[in-house]
């Protein structure tokens, strides 16, 4: 059996996991809002029309933030359409996904939903077709206590207390030609500076997220960040970036190794941040907000790969007809292999916890999501729900920095250890928790964990995600095809453990 050893010393730390590292995202897209979290008339809907069955499953994810309302959607969205009596709200053409937006759900509904779900909202403003004035008015509507036009309107609409929304995104993917109101880096920097200025005049305590670049195939990749940060550095607290991984024909090893691609992408963003910090002689550090990440296999996108995004000026690329209301689009069906890959990506997040302070799994429900609902029906946890739920529930604390030795494998991203792992120490429970992906496709691998300065340690639990059929998926008929299972560790009296071939594991060490 091949072996990999990870050695840890309690003096060598990467950083602390931020409570917002396990966050998610809900866009007005497909059935994320309508019949996802909101379905008046559903037998499990509460008095606000929120689906309590979906909310229970969401609550178990222990999310930090939920980003809303987009995504591409936000770049042509007028938040004022979604407030006030529902019968007066206009139906609008929605350009991002060629749908009709009924506006039956808006900012007040979202804040009410988030409060019930125990999640903090992170709101994106429209810096595509929207004005800087409208962005500042939204901050006023949400955060100002009262006595002004927009804050009094919020009170009139039922919320006496301000929402005090702390996190605000200055637009979405403004680098992309597919974005309504797409701008050059220079023009975006100028507009975002003005928006930041006005928004902070309304509420000086808000935290702002600038749009960074996300897509390596675009010629502006990273130049965008350099240009934008040159202007925006003093105004913002985070730079946003997105990363999707797709299973095309690259082979299992290369797809599974997506964790390394994500790591490279995060490191690229870090390098630009460091460059601008040095060049501008800045004092503060800007953190990374990876506000969209996931496996996205384009099952419902008529493009072959992310490369086709270059120059794209339409989003009529899904199975929907034009101008449908809440069409069932982008409803990815995730396999065991996808779940293993998501588990690997989560390991990368943890290992970059020193710089990545917010990360949103995109998305939360129905659209590219770990949770699926049926209209008038039930809720399903997809395979990817499990690794995400495990890291969110167990992956908090201080991330330890390892020294790694042993077997390796070759893939498109170079020669990598056969087991990719991330480890946190949780002071409160005095537990060390290891998340480990065994990339060995042929056989089990022995993982030898060594800890210095943590006293006597023993692996007390092993949770495993694995199986013979990598294509297996959860369905409403068979919802437990892919889940995490606890393995019997009665024979384990130390910190060596066998990881099944092609498996994602959580090890609890006491
Ligand atoms: O999450 C789906 C889409 O992916 C978002 O709307 C956009 O920001 C990204 O391109």
Automatic annotation (TrEMBL):
Catalyzed reaction equations: Hydrolysis of terminal non-reducing alpha-L-arabinofuranoside residues in alpha-L-arabinosides
Similarity comment: Belongs to the glycosyl hydrolase 51 family.
Keywords tagged on the record: Carbohydrate metabolism, Glycosidase, Hydrolase
Gene Ontology MF term list: alpha-L-arabinofuranosidase activity
Keyword Hydrolase belongs to the record: yes
InterPro entries registered for this protein in UniProt: Alpha-L-AF_C, ASD1_cat, GH, Glyco_hydro_b
Pfam families: Alpha-L-AF_C (PF06964), ASD1_dom (PF22848)
Entry EC no(s): 3.2.1.55
Residue ranges occupied by any Alpha-L-arabinofuranosidase C-terminal domain in the UniProt entry: 291-503
Subunit structure: Homohexamer; trimer of dimers.
Superkingdom of this protein's organism: Bacteria
GO biological process, one term: polysaccharide catabolic process
Top EC class, one word: hydrolase
Residues annotated as signal peptide: none
Name this protein carries in UniProt: non-reducing end alpha-L-arabinofuranosidase
């Amino acid at each position: 059996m091949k072996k990999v050893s990870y050695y840890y010393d309690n003096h060598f730390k990467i950083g602390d996991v931020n409570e917002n590292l396990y966050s998610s995202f809900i866009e007005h897209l497909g059935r994320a809002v309508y019949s996802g979290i909101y379905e008046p008339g559903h037998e499990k809907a509460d008095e606000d029309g929120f689906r309590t069955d979906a909310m229970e499953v969401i609550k178990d994810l222990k999310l930090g933030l939920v980003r809303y309302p987009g995504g591409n959607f936000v770049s042509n969205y007028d938040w004022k359409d979604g407030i006030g009596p529902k019968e007066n709200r206009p139906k609008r053409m929605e350009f991002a996904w060629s749908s009709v937006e009924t506006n039956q759900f808006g900012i007040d509904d979202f804040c009410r939903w988030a409060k019930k779900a125990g999640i903090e909202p992170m709101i994106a403003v429209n810096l595509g077709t929207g004005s800087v004035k409208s962005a500042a008015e939204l901050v006023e509507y949400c955060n100002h206590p009262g006595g002004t036009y927009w804050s009094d309107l919020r009170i009139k609409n039922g919320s006496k207390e301000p929402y005090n929304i702390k996190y605000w995104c200055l637009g979405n993917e403004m680098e992309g030609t597919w974005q309504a109101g797409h701008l050059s880096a220079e023009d975006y920097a100028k507009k975002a500076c003005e928006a930041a200025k006005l928004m902070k005049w309304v509420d000086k305590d808000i935290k702002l997220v600038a749009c960074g670049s996300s897509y390596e195939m675009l010629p502006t990749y990273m130049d965008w960040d350099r240009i934008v940060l040159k202007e925006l550095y003093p105004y913002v607290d985070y730079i946003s970036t997105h990363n999707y991984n797709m299973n095309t024909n690259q082979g299992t090893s290369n797809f599974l190794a997506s964790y390394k691609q994500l790591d490279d992408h995060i490191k690229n963003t870090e390098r630009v941040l460091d460059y601008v910090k040095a060049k501008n002689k800045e004092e503060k550090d800007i953190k990374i907000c990876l506000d969209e990440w996931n496996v996205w296999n384009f099952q419902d996108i008529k493009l072959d790969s992310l490369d086709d995004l270059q120059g794209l000026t339409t989003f009529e690329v899904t199975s929907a007809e034009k101008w449908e209301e809440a069409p069932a689009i982008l409803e990815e069906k995730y396999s065991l292999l996808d779940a293993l890959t998501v588990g690997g990506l989560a390991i990368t997040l943890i290992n970059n916890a020193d710089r990545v302070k917010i990360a949103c799994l995109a998305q939360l429900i129905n659209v590219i999501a770990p949770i699926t609902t049926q209209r008038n029906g039930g809720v399903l946890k997809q395979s990817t729900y499990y690794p995400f739920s495990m890291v969110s529930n167990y992956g908090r604390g201080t991330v330890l920095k390892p020294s790694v030795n042993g077997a390796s494998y070759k893939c498109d991203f170079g020669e990598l250890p056969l087991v990719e792992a991330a480890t946190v120490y949780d002071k409160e429970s005095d537990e060390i928790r290891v998340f480990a992906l065994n990339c060995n496709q042929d056989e089990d691998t022995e993982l030898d964990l060594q800890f210095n300065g943590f006293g006597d340690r023993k692996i007390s639990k092993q949770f495993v995600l694995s199986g013979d059929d990598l294509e297996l998926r959860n369905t409403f008929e068979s919802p437990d095809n892919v889940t995490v299972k606890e393995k019997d560790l009665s024979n384990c009296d130390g910190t060596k453990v066998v990881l099944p071939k092609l498996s994602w594991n959580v090890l609890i060490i006491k």
